[in-house]
Amino acid sequence: MHCLIQGQSKVSILIPGKVSVPSDREVNRPASPKTDIATLAIITVTYHPDIDVLDAQLESLPTSALIVVVDNASTYSEREALRLLCGARTRCFLVENDTNFGLPAAINQGVRHAISISPDCRYLLFLDQDTEPDEEGVLSLLRCFESLRATDRNLGCVGPRLLDAKSGLGHGFHRIAGWRWERCYPEADSFPVECANLNCSGSLMDVNLFTQLGGFEEDFFMDHLDTEWSFRVLAAGYKLYGIPSVAFRHRMGAATWRFWFLGWRIWPYRAPSRHYFLFRNAIRLMRRSYVPSVWKFWAAIKLGLTALVHLLMDEKRWLQLRYMAKGVLDGLR
After folding, report:
1. What distance lies between CA 109 and its chain's CA centroid?
2. E strands, the chain, where?
3. What is the mean pLDDT of residues 274-299?
4. Which residues of 279-307 are buried (b: 16+ CB within 10 A; e: fewer)?
């Protein structure tokens, strides 16, 4: 695997957060000479999960890592299945919520629970309930993180190459090139790619960075929580890297549309309620000073394109458009 790069200087920007961190602990401590997977906490949030897919995810995770599954008010039978899954594994803990608090709040809750169980926790890895790392993928990602940090003290987060579980197509990594917000699709044997944004699922970071910046913004509920987090990390002077040599299978939305545009691409199909949060949170981000102007420009175009695609192709087009419009109005409030 290729995991070495040169570092750059960091800009000192302090951003208040909701989670405190002891002032005597550095955000980027030196990497340990030997990767200790027991210092990694893996947080998965569930909401009406596919139990078989989740079981496959848990089977792929290192047994010595700490695993915290936070369930956001799934059904009784689903919780029973979750208890069996977690109970059958060492260092796997289930946190059950009677209310759906949203994805960012549940992640923050999972981190607090992990730190309370293991105060020596050094690293965090976040996974969606339907993300499946390749064999040795988690360990490889952690080793790449430690290798990168050994040469770049400004390292913030790393993320794997995400592959659509159905089509096998890569989701790519986001970068800024002048006034272009673009995706790049590096080969599996490529060196790490500096990114402008990372998907929440698969993101790995130092626990102290997470607590210093206050964790995820809970009011986002879902969608663009990782976009907001990525821009906050960058604004604080840290960097994001995609690791092409590590692949996780990932499902985007309930289904995907596959189409050709200068190569095969995938378009995630989302429910109307998802589009409400997607549009609302995008509008909120457009109003924030630390969000890059180039992202705002292309996000506005993508929102319009999303509305157009569903108007032309979706049987629920009017319901979709109604939720999108409501999201825009609420984002402007």
Report:
1. 15
2. 40-46, 66-72, 92-97, 123-128, 132-133, 155-164, 173-177, 180-184, 193-195, 204-206, 239-250, 255-260, 264-269
3. 97
4. bbbbbbbbeeeebbebbbebbeeebeebb
User: Which long-range contacts does 141-144 make (Cβ < 8 Å, 24+ apart)?
Assistant: 141/202, 141/204, 141/243, 141/246, 142/35, 142/37, 142/40, 142/204, 143/1, 143/3, 143/35, 144/1, 144/3, 144/192, 144/243, 144/245, 144/246
- Neighbouring CB atoms inside 10 A of 146's CB total 21
pLDDT in the model for residue 25: 41
216 in Cβ contact with 107 (< 8 Å)? yes
pLDDT for residue 48: 96
Mean pLDDT value of segment 38-61: 96
Contacts of 47 (CB under 8 A, 6+ apart): 71, 72, 73, 74, 100, 129
Residue spans per domain, the chain: 38-252, 270-331
Please name every residue paired with 69 in a beta bridge, in sequence order, or none if there are none.
44, 94
Q: Is residue 69 scored above 50 in pLDDT? A: yes
Q: d(Cα 68, Cα 41) in Å, to the nearest integer?
A: 7
Q: Kindly report the backbone phi and psi dihedral angles of residue 143, in degrees, each rounded to the nearest multiple of 5, phi listed first.
A: -65, -40
Instruction: Return all residues near 78 (Cβ < 8 A) that are at least 6 apart.
Output: 46, 48, 49, 51, 71
**Number of neighbouring beta carbons within 10 Å of residue 314:** 15
Structure token digits, residue 86: 């977690």
Tell whether the model's pLDDT for residue 323 goes beyond 80. yes
Asked whether the beta carbons of 221 and 172 are under 8 A apart, the reply is: no
Half-sphere exposure of residue 322: CA atoms within 13 angstroms, side-chain side: 4
CATH topology of domain 38-252: Spore Coat Polysaccharide Biosynthesis Protein SpsA; Chain A (3.90.550)
Decide: residue 36, CB within 10 A, 0-12 exposed, 13-18 middle, 19+ buried. Answer: middle
Give the pTM: 0.87
